[in-house]
Amino acid sequence: xxxxxxxxxxxxxxxxxxxxxxxxxxxxxxxxxxxxxxxxxxxxxxxxxxxxxxxxxxxxxxxxxxxxxxxxxxxxxxxxxxxxxxxxxxxxxxxxxxxxxxxxxxxxxxxxxxxxxxxxxxxxxxxxxxxxxxxxxxxxxxxxxxxxxxxxxxxxxxxxxxxxxxxxxxxxxxxxxxxxxxxxxxxxxxxxxxxxxxxxxxxxxxxxxxxxxxxxxxxxxxxxxxxxxxxxxxxxxxxxxxxxxxxxxxxxxxxxxxxxxxxxxxx
Amino acid sequence: xxxxxxxxxxxxxxxxxxxxxxxxxxxxxxxxxxxxxxxxxxxxxxxxxxxxxxxxxxxxxxxxxxxxxxxxxxxxxxxxxxxxxxxxxxxxxxxxxxxxxxxxxxxxxxxxxxxxxxxxxxxxxxxxxxxxxxxxxxxxxxxxxxxxxxxxxxxxxxxxxxxxxxxxxxxxxxxxxxxxxxxxxxxxxxxxxxxxxxxxxxxxxxxxxxxxxxxxxxxxxxxxxxxxxxxxxxxxxxxxxxxxxxxxxxxxxxxxxxxxxxxxxxxxxxxxxxxxxxxxxxxxxxxxxxxxxxxxxxxxxxxxxxxxxxxxxxxxxxxxxxxxxxxxxxxxxxxxxxxxxxxxxxxxxxxxxxxxxxxxxxxxxxxxxxxxxxxxxxxxxxxxx
Lengths: 267, 385
What we know:
The complex is a heterodimer.
Chain A: E1 26-37, E2 40-51, E3 55-59, H1 66-73, E4 81-86, E5 89-90, H2 95-104, E6 105-108, H3 120-130, H4 136-149, H5 165-177, E7 183-187, H6 195-210, E8 214-218, H7 222-228, E9 231-236, E10 239-244, H8 246-251, H9 256-265
Parallel strand pairs in A: 3-8, 3-9, 6-7, 7-8
Antiparallel strand pairs in A: 1-2, 1-4, 4-5, 9-10
Helix pairs in contact in A: 3-4, 3-5, 4-5, 5-6
Chain B: H1 25-33, H2 38-64, H3 94-106, H4 115-132, H5 139-159, H6 175-201, H7 206-220, H8 224-238, H9 247-273, H10 276-284, H11 289-304, H12 306-319, E1 329-330, H13 331-339, H14 347-379
């Protein structure tokens, strides 16, 4: 069985020894969560406990609710029933709590969502300066540190429109990291990229995983899932259908729907 | 039969060359833009003929035959009309504009006090020019002086009644002074108020939203003439006896609110053009509502609608002429008022006065238009991919 992705599992080098998962420290706890869009029941009875340092890959067919689920975690979407507790803070209508959670949770989007009217550096320093009240100079130092880490410090004074998709996505990752988040959410970070650029973004994400970042990642990069994730979640029709370690999930899927899905994407 | 070879390997990468000479220079430009096809050539010829027919006459009237100096109507009237010009003469009477220039600028503002509006105008230009040039530093201080200190200073200076300055009633104001005061206040009030109304209209809070919609739709649904008329004629009926607002102030409020309603719809158009991802990007970083709007959404939205904003400014600038129906005399009003001066009654007077008024209006509008295009280019960070 080969994996038909731009980046195969063999290409991803991971230092597994560094990736420690806590057994006691809960990062995210979702309990009996439901969500409706009007009359449409998009998420049904979601239960998910994420420990600190876990790297979770969420996959499933389009419309299965995987993006909606991770968007609920930083309240870009509102849930109507059940509980979501992030870093010990429960998400309710309390705007202050929501902002607190958003400060601790970084998010990377499919279409980057960089701010086109600001330079790369300004994109990265904006939130630290205005939300964390970091002095400008210090915020710029932090931003340059993370831009170096995603390997594009030389683009700091350009505008997002002048960068390639892969570079933009790495800036988006750096922008999130500048807020020093404890949890990172990735919503199909490589789906809008040219094949040649997927690898550079995945490498950045692997680097993050090796540093022990708690990550939830909606992606179809199965090579990445197999090598980096410690748990793969499969969703269909708004519910979690199956979850397992990557090895078990790919080699020994149990639910019929999972088997069908895997047979469609793996050849 | 020749064999069809399917395999190919490039040995050397081709180097970039400069474009062929037929694509460059004046000749290429003329070929591409003026005589590219038969249709183009015909249109070019028609255009040249039209210009050749109109331009000499216009230049003849406005410059060559024009009467530049003079003290009364005889300088601009033909012999048959009781003047000094030969029969059949047709030229602009700039002497009229020259003689009435002070009135056109200040209306009936007392001649001894005209240094006050002149001083305000000098300060206005001195503060506006550095504000408009991006390279000049200290924009914040400049803006505070221009939008905060200058209006207060100008108010006391123009109205008077304090510091030993004689009081000048606003009913004596007129001409360009009125036009510019109305426009400046209208612009300075309508843009921020329009932004607030646009945000309110998109608010999730139903009461705020409803109030904004009611205001916008009511004001937008009434002609400006009606607003001004109501402000000047009907408002006093509802106020208790003895309480009265200055008529000019009422016109200022009327024009500002009117422009704000239009402005809010322009701004709303810009807000709607900002992709949802920008809001989500800002949200995900923990920015609050006002930070999100002020730092991310509005800078992009306003940039998109600069043409619409300037359109509204220009429209308002010209609409200030309508204050003549509440017997305030803006530039056009004063010009028209002077047509009835028997000392200057000639067939050329009205033409010349109107052309002058049109030219002044055009000058300001064209300036705004060019500056807005400059700003558009300056703010374009090339994100259109």
